[in-house]
Amino acid sequence: MRFSIRTKLAVLFILIILIPVASSSVSLSLLYAFNNDAKEYAKSGILLKETFDLVNAKYGLAEDYDAFYAALEPSLKKISGHLQIIDSKGFVIFDSMDKQASLKKNQVDISAMCSYDPKYSLKYPTMHKHINPIVVNRTQVASAIIIKDMGAFGNGIGKKLTIYSSICFFIGLILLAFVFNRFVKKTILNPLKTLNMATANIMEGNLDFRVDYNGKDELGQVCNAFETMRIKLKESLEQQAFYDNARKELLASISHDLRTPITSIKGYVEGLQDGIPKDENKFKKYLSIIKNKTANLDRLIDDLFKFTQEDAGILDIDLVETDSCSMFEGIICSIEADLESTEVKISVQRPFPSRTILADPFRITQVMENIIQNARKYAGAACEIEIKVQEMDESILVSVKDNGPGISEEDLPKVFERFYRGEKSRSRKFGGIGIGLTICRQIVEAHGGRIWAESIIGKGATFFFTLPELKDK
Predict the structure, then answer these.
(1) How far is the CA of 394 from the CAs of 91, 277, 356, 357, 472, in angstroms?
(2) CA torsion sign, 256 to 369 to 342 to 376?
(3) Per-residue pLDDT reduced to its tens digit, 175-199
(4) pLDDT digit string, tens, across residues 381-393
(5) Which CATH number fits domain 315-468: 3.40.50.11810, 3.30.565.10, 3.10.580.10, 3.30.9.10?
(6) Which fold has domain 218-308?
(7) Cα–chain-centroid distance for residue 33?
(8) Is the pTM of this model over 0.70?
(9) What does the alpha-carbon distance between residue 388 and residue 410 come to, in Å, rounded to a whole number?
(10) Domain covering 35-149 in this structure, CATH number
């Protein structure tokens, strides 16, 4: 069950009141249970009550001193007390220690007799006066006064009660202080210490730690939020470090990939300047090589441009209502024309479905060209590409299948990640910086679709993407 710090403090303050009271009550119970003086004191109280009850019951005999005394004598001996009975007018009608005074019925000050006299208490500290009214027919007709010497335990019991109560009270306070210390340490100080250590670690740049406080109160929520922040910050820094390393690899890759064609072009240009090609065919061959190398350079520079676009997040998408059939017809006809003079075999399943969609034809062209360029790169000279545009329930599904070496199961989920190029030796062989498919994913997702790949090693790969149909307004 979850309790807030406010609730816990409220419970604690209630305990501050209850524990001392409970400890004092326990001390009294223990005193009466295990102390002989306390037992005697309690027994004396019972005997006094019995005597007073007997006085009330036998009051009708009060006029006959001997008979009344005979009825009360056994009880008076048990309590060792001196009994006086004073009527409502202040006359002493019975004195257990002075028969003559009883017979004379001396008059006394009843208010003084029935009240506390400090001088008497100081003079006789062990003497206790107990007063009880005598009632007949619901009217108080007299007062019974028993003066009893409580002896050593009469005064000792009060002192012991005070000592026992004080001891137990202070024990209760110590216990309460221990509970309060445990509560403050566990609920407040420990989480604050944890947060302080976490803050110090973050200031030092160390994020390899855990905020190990799982309380359900307010500070627990703060610690959980702090732990979530630490995890997010660590992931962000790791991602930043990954991007920094990727940029370094990018520069190294571009430096290597640019150096080769530039060196080659430089060599062939120098050969042309020196007049090495003597016939027209060799001259044309040199020019063709230079053209191909220039095209490679252009492709590398285009990759670099794509990288800067994707990294800055400035791929503008201009969505317009268009017919899927006419859009794909225009895109694929252009691709077929570009591949006409190559060895690539391309097959297209027609007719295309006609649906109204929101799309940017230029960006969809970019997606198609990137996927086909990726297929040509890995399938080689004998590349075969199959393109299908199919009608789904509420979208258009486009698939591009090649006959390349395929993508391993390990690499398949990562092909759309930035800078990911699969197995390194093959990546070096085919070049590129591994962002073409990342651009494709960004464009497709900006259209509200999704993109994925399926492959079996040795049997090529198929790339799919969807474009949602524009629903009726």
Answers:
(1) 115, 61, 11, 10, 11
(2) positive
(3) 777 877 777 777 777 777 777 888 8
(4) 788 999 999 998 8
(5) 3.30.565.10
(6) Helix Hairpins (1.10.287)
(7) 51
(8) no
(9) 26
(10) 3.30.450.20
